[in-house]
Design a protein that fits this description.
This protein is α+β, with helices and mostly antiparallel strands and about 170 residues long. It contains four helices and five strands. Helix 3 (about 80-90) packs antiparallel against helix 4 (about 100-105). The termini are far apart.
């Protein structure tokens, strides 16, 4: 888990350089964009400008800017008209060739234009954790009452057979 040079074929390096998805937040170390495969309205990715693979590889300045990026992105989420955002995504030229099923599903959610009730903040730090792109990205996922049947346990549920704990 180390920092490697940025590459043109790294999707998140392209986003960080402003060459892909529109940025919704920037500070000196991070950028953020709405995920184009959203799970819930406002689903966002917070990406370091530097090509770094792991959260544990952030330098002191990046660590200092980390929570600012989370807070700034949350503020943008809560100020955004989600219906407008996802309708516009469906017609974005740069997404023309990409599947749009996630966007269409989010547009049908009954809580689409509600303010989030909570957030799940996560990072799949390593391939064994489920990371699919080797550039750190922190997921800021707005949560809504009723988005899952039983949210108790939250992130623990990534390993369902061992998620429940005894009282």
């Amino acid at each position: 888990m180390t920092s490697t040079p940025a590459t043109q074929d790294c999707r998140f390096c392209r986003i960080a350089a402003g060459l892909a998805d529109p940025l919704i937040f920037e500070n000196r170390s991070f950028v953020a964009a709405f995920d184009t495969n959203p799970v819930n309205p406002g689903h966002s990715l917070i990406i370091p400008r530097r090509h770094v693979v792991s959260l544990f590889d952030l330098n002191e300045m990046e660590q200092s800017d980390y929570f600012d990026a989370i807070q700034g992105t949350r503020q943008v989420i809560e100020a955004t008209d989600m219906t407008d955002l996802y309708r516009n995504m469906l017609s974005r030229d740069d997404l023309r060739e990409r599947p749009k099923g996630h966007i269409e599903s989010v547009l049908k959610l009954p809580f689409l234009d509600n303010r989030p009730d909570a957030y799940t903040i996560g990072n799949n730090d390593g391939r064994a954790a489920g990371r699919s792109i080797d550039h750190l990205h922190v997921i800021l996922l707005p949560r809504f009452h009723g988005d899952v049947q039983d949210p108790r346990g939250g992130i623990r549920n990534v390993i369902p057979d061992r998620a429940k704990y005894h009282k």
